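For the sake of transparency, this paper describes our internal protein records without simplification. The remainder of this section carries one protein's record, kept here as part of the documentation:
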Amino acid sequence: QVQLVESGGGLVQAGGSLRLSCAASGGTFSNYRIGWFRQAPGKEREFVAAISWSGGVTFYAGPVKGRTTFSRDIPKNIVYLQMNTLISEDTAVYYCAAHRRPFSTRRASDYDSWGQGTQVTVSS
């Protein structure tokens, strides 16, 4: 099973930008679909964005649409989440996840591989 490692989180001022990355080890993203989720203290885990590795088709949750770009680097086997115009509501632990189902999904329970998470804190 593929292992996932997130990085790129940190402390940023409101209005700033961050680029999160998720690297696969012990396998590749081939035939996978990858998602980003986030979880703030006291809140449920929330879907952020998803991408299909083979086709690169993306979709985004409403709160981040227009400010966020999900991309992939096929030779490096890495996906990136570029977040711009950050606001305090973006503060959360961000997780990448993957599954091999033949259809896209925003349900956390459908993903069977998860990274350890990376903290994003937006100050204001």
Notes: DSSP finds no helices and eleven strands in the chain. The radius of gyration is 13 Å. The mean pLDDT is 96.
